[in-house]
Design brief:
mainly alpha, 17 helices, 0% strand
């Protein structure tokens, strides 16, 4: 399957595709600010109602679901932030960390640098790519296990920032280990983050401190009875479902056919990725443009609010739109079933 994809990629009209969308590369800051602030405000309000309402009441359940989807959308803006040009939208980066990233204990530095590597031709799909595993070429049960591990992640990030981070400031070897093994939003548990560089941002240490301060402030308020115990239970439940949905979205974002030993061109990356244009439902489980993930791999610096227009334009005007549409799936379920079948087929070939 991978070899067939490489043959097709050689015919992909990349030059024509770039010409068709070159006017869509400029971000509109107003769209970013309005979208993010509305999402985080709705999420925070619904979170508060969930804590206040009777547990498992209709109001509590509805508020919980609203909090999850709104905060999920707010959190996903981290993907846009790491693609901002250096020195641009600095106030937005700051606001995202203060209003969202520190609250969920996922500051922006945990994605900075790491995700950019995911787009590099020499890294994408290889064993150096922390955001890639051969889900389409390994035993299907491993894909299920990847999703199920989401239940542990809120607890792990809490331990990372509340306990291990302060210890890492005192014990340098532990601090270096945390940077390598517990400072990256990746899916490969064996990933080792390289030592910090400019690509990781100037203020990653300050972000780490702020996340720890946020966490311990909440704990202190809980000890003194200002925050109820239910606040922490709701936080865990919300963050868990956000990460759970993102793990499912991640499985539907690529075909994951590279076993880890082959470098892939931009066109090959595109054909190994997935667009699910869909409708309202696609915008819920893959917010902020991520339902056009294959198109994003063609144009990593295109702002999320232009991806839908780019998809429609390329589908209509590309000289070889059939090849472009090979990366599209009608629904998330179709993408997941395709991935499962690819994984099963790969195991049958091995046996």
């Amino acid at each position: 399957m991978l070899n067939d994809m490489k043959v097709k990629a050689a015919d992909f009209p990349l030059k024509e595709a770039r010409a068709l969308v070159k006017d869509l590369m400029k971000a509109n800051p107003v769209i970013y600010w309005v979208d993010f602030l509305l999402s985080v405000a709705l999420g925070a309000g619904a979170f508060a109602v969930t804590v206040w309402a009777d547990t498992f009441s209709v109001l509590g359940i509805v508020a919980y679901l609203v909090a999850v989807f709104a905060l999920y959308r707010a959190v996903i803006f981290i993907h846009e932030i790491v693609h901002f040009k250096k020195g641009s939208m600095t106030s937005f980066r700051f606001a995202w960390n203060v209003l969202c990233g520190f609250f969920v204990l996922v500051p922006a530095f945990m994605y900075q640098g790491v995700h950019i590597d995911h787009h590099k031709r020499d890294v994408y799909g290889t064993k150096e790519d922390g955001e890639y595993l051969p889900f389409g070429a390994q035993a299907p049960w491993k894909n299920v296990w990847y999703v199920m591990t989401s239940i542990f992640l809120p607890g792990l990030v809490a331990v990372r920032y509340l306990i291990l981070t302060p210890l890492g400031w005192i014990i340098p070897p532990l601090g270096r280990l945390l940077w390598q093994r517990a400072s990256s939003l990746t899916i490969d548990m064996d990933y080792r983050r390289p030592p910090p560089t400019e690509l990781d941002g100037k203020y990653w240490r300050l972000q780490e401190v702020c996340a720890t301060v946020y966490g311990w402030t909440a704990v202190t308020l809980g000890v003194y009875g200002i925050l109820p115990v239910k606040f922490f239970a709701v936080w865990y439940a919300v963050v868990f479902l956000v990460l759970f949905m993102n793990s499912i979205r991640t499985l539907g974002a690529h075909a994951y056919r590279n076993p880890g030993d082959q470098k892939m061109s931009v066109a090959e990356q595109f054909l190994d990725s997935v667009d699910v244009p869909g409708g309202m439902l696609s915008a819920l489980w893959a917010p902020v443009g991520l339902r056009f993930h294959a198109t994003h791999h063609l144009f990593p610096n295109m702002p999320y609010h232009s991806l839908g227009t780019a998809y429609a334009r390329l589908k209509k005007d590309l000289p070889n739109s059939e090849l472009y549409l090979e990366a599209s799936r009608p629904t998330l379920a179709h993408a997941m079933v395709t991935l499962w079948r690819d994984a099963r087929a790969s195991q049958q070939k091995k046996s």
